[in-house]
Every structure is written in structure tokens, then in C-alpha cells.
Amino acid sequence: MKAAVCREFGAPLSVEEVGLADPESYEVRVKLSACAICHSDITYMDGGWGGSLPAVFGHEAAGVVEQAGNGVTRVAVGDTVVVTLLRSCGDCYYCSKDHHSLCETIFPLDTTSPLQDRYGKTLGHGLRTGAFAEQVVVHESQVLGIPTSVPMTSAALLSCGVITAFGAVKNVARVVPGSSVVTIGTGGIGLNCIQGASICGSKVNIAVDLVDEKIQAALRLGATHGINPVNSGIKDEIERLTDGRGADYVFVAAGSATAVEQALTLVRRAGMVILVGMTAEGVTAQFKTLNLANDAIQWSAARWDRHILIRHSSSGRTLSGRQFETRRTGVKCYPWKGSMMQ
After folding, report:
1. 139, 109 in Cβ contact below 8 A?
2. What residue ranges do the domains of the chain occupy?
């Protein structure tokens, strides 16, 4: 099969013929129809988080199950599925507390890779998935059956960026109707925080970004207000929109120290700051510990809400991955370089 192989950080990817092992017990092989590009993939491929090469990245995918290993019960051959990087045992300490993304179990695919190049050298199973390819082998807990009515491209987008943001809004912050929400950074994660806050019934849903076009996209997806800090004083404007108190919730969906530091000045007393954006290795933020006395800071990871998201998407409700499609291309012809993929 064809796959886009990362052999050097920051360099163009190499589209190559690679080998893919058959699935072992509790694993499935999926023929992919779509794979979205996540900023996490770009950061890894540009060397921002280190790691070992060569590897195949990509982890937001959708396709059809073509082969199932012994013991697989969650899906069957022929099922249409989304594929994610999340895998879990369902039995460990964290799984028992419904924190499946923090599963403690070591799976065979955590220590071995099903991918080899044409010379027989092992290729890294990037982000537990290796989906910049025509097929993947993953643990059965990484796939979820979806209705055939959901477009594959939309399903792929729902499998990571949307659930990460929606989980932060619904499960971590537990945004309530009538609340005030600020989202700093309106890339893919930020826009989905805004979608999620809108679905949860926020009254004031503020998008903050340095790019006016992104703010306009946020307004189309449910933001009630947009602020570009270049054009207006962000703190004063947010206080004006929240009766002088500051926001109930501030989601940081930008991977910068400045965004984290700024968030603490925008949240009300006893409010919550939720860190959703991923920073590069070594980035640190500074703030006065006194500022934390009446605030809560939470870090968010993707949660197990794929079923909910698929229902929203298939029913035509507000939450959707379709609105984030900007370009389609095949694995054989894309300009596979991290900076171009942004």
C-alpha cells in the first residue's frame, strides 16, 4: 500500500510502498477513505515534540473494516468506522472512572509497529494510528461504527479535533446554559470549542483571534462576539460583555504561553480556565500564583464522546465536521510537507 513516510523532521514526506502486518488479536485492519490533518501531526513532523523516525503519522481517519483479528467484538468486517488515536482497555483505574483517554494498559501496538518500508525496516506507528496511508491496523477500541449517511470526510474530522474540543466543553468545563464563554484561538480546536459552547446553551460566546477571517468563521459557527486584540482592548471588552466580572469559562485553544497567561486575566472569580491547545516542547507560562486563588485551571484531553458527536452530525444538528473541510487530495499527489499542510 501507499503511505506518506516522515524520514526527516521538517522535510517533505516521502510517498512510498510500505508493508502492513495482519491484525493480531483484538485488532482490525481498516481501508481508509479519508484522513484529516491535525496540527499535532504537523508538530510531530516538524520535530516540535521529538520522537523517532522514520514514521507514518496521521490519526483522524474513517474507512471500512477489511479484516478483524481474533476476539474482536466491537465491529465486523464491512462496517464503516471512524479511527482515532484513543485506545483503552475498559478495566483499568482510569477507564473505570470514565477517563478512557488516560488508560494505563500497555497494548502490543504500544511496543511494536505493523508498518515496514520496502527494505523491511520498521516504520513508527505515528500517534498510534499511522493514517497518512491507504490502510491502518489498530486496536478495536480505536474504531467506532458510524452510519453510512455520515460522509467519510466529516467522520474523519469528528474523530479527533472535534471530540477534543467538545469533550473540553461538555465534560471538563461542563458549560451550563446562560453562561459566558471565551475561546482564545479559533483554529480547528477553538472553532469546535465555540460549536460546543453554542450547543451547551452559552449566552455569551466570545471568539478571540488575531486573524479577522478566523473570527468571521467563529461567528458563523455560533460565536456571539468576536475580538481581535490588535483592534481593541480584550480585557475591557470581555468585562463589558460580562457585566464587569469576566467570563465563566475561558478555553485556551492556542499553543502559546501568552494565551495561557492572558486567560487568567479574562476569567471571573471562581471561574475556570481550560487548556485545550497543545504547545511545543519547552514552552512555559508565567503568572502570579495569587491570581489562582479563586480560579480553577483544567487540562483537557479527548474524551469518549464519539457516539454523541456522530449522532449530532448524522442528525444535521449544529455540531459538524463538514464545515472544516478546505481541500481534498489523494495520498499520492499531496505536497507532503508540514508547513504546506497548515
Report:
1. yes
2. 2-145, 165-299
**For position 208, what pLDDT does the model report?**
98
Residue 327 sits at the vertex; the CA angle it makes with 321 and 333, to the nearest 5 degrees, is 130
Burial 200-236 (b: 16+ CB within 10 A, else e): bebebbbbbbeeeebbebbbebbbbbbbeeeeeebee
Choices 1.20.58.340, 3.40.830.10, 3.40.50.720, 1.20.140.10: CATH for 165-299: 3.40.50.720
pLDDT for 145-181, tens place per residue? 988 988 898 889 888 888 888 888 988 899 999 999 9
Q: Which pLDDT band holds residue 289 (cuts at 50, 70, 90)?
A: low
Q: How far apart are CA 300 and CA 126, in angstroms?
A: 21
Q: Which candidate, 290, 284, 282, places its Cα nearest to that of 265?
A: 290
Q: Which amino acid is at 62?
A: A
Distance (Å) of CA 295 to CA 111, 237, 251: 40, 20, 13
pTM for this entry: 0.83
Partnered with residue 180 across adjacent β-strands are 204
Asked if residue 100 lies in contact with residue 84, where contact means CB atoms within 8 angstroms, the answer is no
